[in-house]
Amino acid sequence: MGKAIKEIGAAKTCITGPVLKEAKRIVLEKGIDAAELYAAQLTGTDQNTELMRVLKICRKNNLSPEAIAQVIDKLNIIESGKW
User: Of 16, 69, 71, 72, which sits 20 to 30 A from 3 (CA to CA)?
Assistant: First the structure.
Protein backbone atom coordinates (compact mmCIF):
# COMPACT_ATOMS: atom_id res chain seq x y z
CA MET A 1 0.00 0.00 0.00
CA GLY A 2 2.91 2.37 0.74
CA LYS A 3 4.11 2.18 -2.86
CA ALA A 4 0.62 3.05 -4.13
CA ILE A 5 0.33 5.98 -1.72
CA LYS A 6 3.72 7.28 -2.83
CA GLU A 7 2.70 6.95 -6.48
CA ILE A 8 -0.59 8.78 -5.86
CA GLY A 9 1.43 11.60 -4.31
CA ALA A 10 0.33 15.14 -3.74
CA ALA A 11 -2.21 16.47 -6.20
CA LYS A 12 -4.27 19.61 -6.39
CA THR A 13 -7.53 17.91 -7.36
CA CYS A 14 -10.00 17.33 -4.55
CA ILE A 15 -12.67 14.67 -4.93
CA THR A 16 -15.87 15.46 -3.05
CA GLY A 17 -16.96 13.46 -0.02
CA PRO A 18 -20.07 11.94 -1.63
CA VAL A 19 -18.04 10.67 -4.61
CA LEU A 20 -15.41 9.15 -2.31
CA LYS A 21 -18.10 7.55 -0.14
CA GLU A 22 -19.83 6.00 -3.14
CA ALA A 23 -16.55 4.81 -4.68
CA LYS A 24 -15.58 3.15 -1.40
CA ARG A 25 -18.98 1.45 -1.12
CA ILE A 26 -18.74 0.13 -4.67
CA VAL A 27 -15.17 -1.14 -4.19
CA LEU A 28 -16.17 -3.06 -1.06
CA GLU A 29 -19.45 -4.42 -2.44
CA LYS A 30 -18.68 -4.98 -6.12
CA GLY A 31 -14.93 -4.67 -6.63
CA ILE A 32 -12.53 -2.40 -8.45
CA ASP A 33 -14.00 -3.04 -11.92
CA ALA A 34 -17.35 -1.64 -10.78
CA ALA A 35 -15.62 1.31 -9.10
CA GLU A 36 -13.82 2.12 -12.35
CA LEU A 37 -17.17 2.02 -14.18
CA TYR A 38 -18.59 4.41 -11.57
CA ALA A 39 -15.64 6.76 -12.06
CA ALA A 40 -16.14 6.62 -15.82
CA GLN A 41 -19.71 7.85 -15.31
CA LEU A 42 -18.32 11.10 -13.90
CA THR A 43 -17.28 11.96 -17.45
CA GLY A 44 -15.85 15.37 -18.07
CA THR A 45 -15.00 16.18 -14.49
CA ASP A 46 -11.71 16.48 -12.67
CA GLN A 47 -13.11 13.98 -10.18
CA ASN A 48 -13.39 11.39 -12.96
CA THR A 49 -9.81 11.85 -14.04
CA GLU A 50 -8.38 11.77 -10.54
CA LEU A 51 -10.51 8.87 -9.28
CA MET A 52 -9.63 6.80 -12.34
CA ARG A 53 -5.92 7.57 -11.82
CA VAL A 54 -6.09 6.49 -8.18
CA LEU A 55 -8.02 3.29 -8.97
CA LYS A 56 -5.55 2.37 -11.71
CA ILE A 57 -2.63 2.86 -9.31
CA CYS A 58 -4.40 0.65 -6.76
CA ARG A 59 -5.01 -2.03 -9.42
CA LYS A 60 -1.39 -1.86 -10.62
CA ASN A 61 -0.21 -2.40 -7.05
CA ASN A 62 -2.62 -5.33 -6.53
CA LEU A 63 -4.33 -3.77 -3.54
CA SER A 64 -7.22 -5.66 -1.97
CA PRO A 65 -10.68 -4.06 -1.89
CA GLU A 66 -10.15 -3.33 1.81
CA ALA A 67 -6.82 -1.61 1.12
CA ILE A 68 -8.38 0.40 -1.72
CA ALA A 69 -11.14 1.48 0.67
CA GLN A 70 -8.49 2.71 3.10
CA VAL A 71 -6.77 4.67 0.34
CA ILE A 72 -10.11 6.21 -0.66
CA ASP A 73 -10.80 7.12 2.99
CA LYS A 74 -7.50 8.98 3.23
CA LEU A 75 -7.28 10.24 -0.35
CA ASN A 76 -7.69 13.94 0.40
CA ILE A 77 -5.02 13.69 3.12
CA ILE A 78 -2.69 11.74 0.81
CA GLU A 79 -3.12 14.29 -1.96
CA SER A 80 -2.60 17.20 0.41
CA GLY A 81 0.98 16.01 0.86
CA LYS A 82 0.51 15.72 4.64
CA TRP A 83 0.38 11.90 4.71
Answer: 16
